Each structure stands twice: as structure tokens, then as C-alpha cells.
Amino acid sequence: MNIVNIDYIFKITVLGDVYTGKTTLIDQLKYPSSKSIEEKYLSTVGVEYQTVVMEDGTDENKIIKLGIWDTSGDEIFAGILETYYHNVSGIVAVFSRDKIDSFKNVIQKIKYFRERYGNTPQILLIQNKNDLEHKISKEEIDEVIRKYNCLYFSCNSLTGENVFQAFDSLKNSIYQSFLSSGLENKFPGITILHKDFPKDRSYYSCWDFLW
Ligand SMILES: Nc1nc2c(ncn2[C@@H]2O[C@H](COP(=O)(O)OP(=O)(O)OP(=O)(O)O)[C@@H](O)[C@H]2O)c(=O)[nH]1
Ligand SMILES: [Mg+2]
User: Domain 8-206: which CATH class?
Assistant: First the structure.
């Protein structure tokens, strides 16, 4: 049996309009395969939680668990979703390339998020469905990236194009920001599971793993 010791948990929230492909993106990240993911739509009700384990990408060989909150894009849930913006290390903001409104709405969410939570959390902007008609110009996207200091990838979550690269880049950016901050246990959205913690799992509360 392979026992993997997790060093850090990064809390990440995925947001964006309904039908932009948020859940499919996470499915691709979790279950990468050479085959395309089946095209199906099962709207997320409120919020769902997924985890993905990655390496830190440096010589330190730390193991990072991404605790990903997949939120519904339905405005009916807007009231409860605020909780999932709070104390995150990263946001994945998704719009669909063929829907101008999804781009406008995601900009509003990013703006709100930056104004409320400042510059420490990393933001990954994803243009999804890059197989569909292009309705948003590169200049418009570049302006958002510059203004709100975002990472950016154009993805196809049905084929998996750029999906791993996008989340890997977000994870690296969070980790670098954490290392250079010197904040240790106080870094928003990161739980440190020290190697010298007792291995007895009963030591941890469930919140240590979620938050
Ligand atoms: N053409 C195309 N379709 C996609 C892509 N990614 C997802 N889809 C489809 O878009 C639809 C919506 O995908 P979901 O991942 O459920 O969307 P969501 O953003 O999670 O939606 P909510 O949970 O309702 O907020 C599904 O039918 C997917 O198969 C893509 O890259 N290209
Ligand atoms: Mg969903």
C-alpha cells in the first residue's frame, strides 16, 4: 500500500456562470484520460467538494492537496457561496468563449473578490470551451488579466486541453506566494500539515482537511 503524506492543503474555489464547464474542468483534472470526457450536463446544486493531489514542482518534493469547492453558477445560490470565497488561497474564474455574458459576469465576480479579499489570493482566469465560436477578443481578456493580476489559460474541458497546466500553474503560483510571504500558518487558504505532527489521524479535526 502506498501511503502519501500530505504537506499542505490549498483551499480553492471555482466560480463562473452556469454551463461554463466548471464541473467538467474538475472532472478532467481528477480523472485525466486519453479519451474525451462524455458530454453531459448535471447542474451543480449549491456546492460540491473535490480533492486532487499534486507535487509542489520544486526540489523540496512537497505533496499538496487541492481542496476544490465547485460552486453552482446559478444566482439562486449566490447567498451561500460567499462562504466559499472566504479564506481561499486561489480562485478559478471560468467563462465560456461563446458566451459574452459569462465573460462580463466573471469580471464582476473577480472585481468583487479582489476588492474584498485583496491581492494575496491567486486568481486563475479560464476561457473554457475553446472549441466553440470565439466571441471575446484577446484585448478584452488581456485587460482583465492586467487589471486584476490573473493567471490565464484557454481550455477545452471535454478533451482536457490545458486543464492540468492551468491548475498546475495556479498551484505553483500559490506555493511561491506562500513561500515568499513568510506568513506560515497564517497564510489565507493554506493548511500546513507539519511532518512532525503526530501521525495519529485522530489528532486532526475534519476542518483541518477542508480549510
Ligand atoms: N463544447 C464544449 N462543451 C463543454 C466543454 N466543457 C464542458 N462542456 C459542456 O458544457 C456543459 C456544462 O458543463 P458543466 O461542467 O456541468 O458546467 P458547470 O459550469 O459546472 O454548470 P453549473 O454546475 O450549472 O454551474 C456540459 O454539457 C458539458 O459537457 C468544452 O470545453 N467544450
Ligand atoms: Mg457544475
Answer: alpha beta
CA of 96 to the centre of ligand 1 (A): 9
- From 18, 23, 24, 30, give the residue whose CB has the most ligand 1 atoms within 8 Å, as the site to mutate: 24
pLDDT tens-digit series, residues 97-149: 999 999 999 999 999 999 999 999 999 999 999 999 999 999 999 999 999 99
**Is the beta carbon of 158 within 6 A of some atom in ligand 1?**
yes
Domain ranges of the chain: 8-206
Taking phi over 0 as left and psi of -120 to 50 as alpha, with beta for the rest, 156 belongs to beta
The DSSP H or E segment spanning 181 is: helix 163-181
For residue 35, pLDDT over 60 is answered with: no
Give the number of the atom of ligand 1 that is nearest the alpha carbon of residue 70. 20
Reading the block at residue 146, the C-alpha cell is: 492586467
Q: What pTM was estimated for this model as a whole?
A: 0.91
| Å from CA of 1 to ligand 1 middle | 36
CA dist 11 → 92, 110, 114, 142, 209 (Å): 11, 17, 17, 26, 9
- Mapped onto helix, strand or coil, the DSSP state of residue 51 is strand
